[in-house]
Amino acid sequence: MHTYHQEYLLKIDLSKCYENIYTHSLTWALYGKEQSKLELKKSPSHRNPIYIKCDNLDRKVRSINNNETKGIPTGPLASRIVSEVILSSIDEILRSKNYHFKRYVDDYNFYFRNEVDAYEFLPQFQNILYEYKLHINTEKTKLEKYPYQLNQDFTKELKAHNFKNEGYLRYIERLIELHNEGNKGALKYGLNVLGKKRIPSKENKVIFSHLINIMISFPNLSEQIYAIIINNNFSYDIKTEETVNSILIHCIKNKYELETIWLLTVMGFLRMKVDTINLISIINHAEPCATIIVLDYIFKNTLSSDVAIKDAMNNLKLLLINEKSYGEKWLLLYEINRNNWIKGLRKCLDDSPFLKNAYKDNIFFLKVLLCKMTEQTEP
């Protein structure tokens, strides 16, 4: 246990994590900082192939942010993966020094036996972060002495909630309050409980709006939100449908890829209409998972003959015609061929025995990927 005989809890938040990420540190995390510096001294033709792949990844990350080396966009799913790679590398350093900690995205909980150890650790941790151009948010740094807030506190409270008398709205409001008070895990725990409940029709509409807001604010909890939605017969009117489409526009515009994917999944389950402008925008963006969901929606609703949609699909074909099966669009290419959505792209799978066999066996990857994308690392 992290807390066994650890009397002090040091809470640390990273300052503007995404804005401060130094893209070269991605190569350092994957290949090693000193090793990377040694490779740079070599001529390009003599560099290690693994280093070259890491360096190319760094270049691609920079390309989505005007070739800047400082900072990555906060919306795209790729940014979350990049930050996780870097922070996982920092985790390994901390583990090698035998520190007791838990990390929730960019929030850390460190456990110490005494106050002196906690305060001595702070500059050491800052030095580790500095190697990756990251910094501690001193305003949110907090040291608590046992008994500090434990998970059992909120679980007991939530278990005692009387849904019949206090209602479901108050329960969700309390979940958000607990989260804002610093109770890590309260939202996830509470939503898992809610996933086993049948929400009464009188609270149906307001609960649905709160669930969508939570999904957009905390995309890592989308799987829990989706479980609640499929377990309840949520009704909606035209105004709700319009509101959800406007939220979808916001997600697409800001390249919130994971939020876009899950919002489309919810809309599909509830048989909500997705506005044509949103369908076209997603196809034009060509993010694999979202585009697959949209193409599935288009063909299930016989919308492929729409002139604007047909033009967007033709443009997508031109974009993919020279794509390789080992490129970043492999999943999109695979599903287009598996479902026969766009003709003329079959040859793109020919250079991959793995995808050819998967195609032959009609394997569906998307469900597994959606689950994997919402997993959080907890050291």
From TrEMBL:
Classification via InterPro entries:
GrpII_Intron_Splice-Mob/Def (IPR051083), RT_dom (IPR000477)
Domain of life, per lineage: Bacteria
* Keywords carried by this UniProt record: Nucleotidyltransferase, RNA-directed DNA polymerase, Transferase
GO molecular function, a single term: RNA-directed DNA polymerase activity
Every Reverse transcriptase domain range: 1-176
- Keyword Transferase listed? The answer is yes
The protein's name in its UniProt record = Reverse transcriptase (RNA-dependent DNA polymerase)
Native species: Mobilisporobacter senegalensis
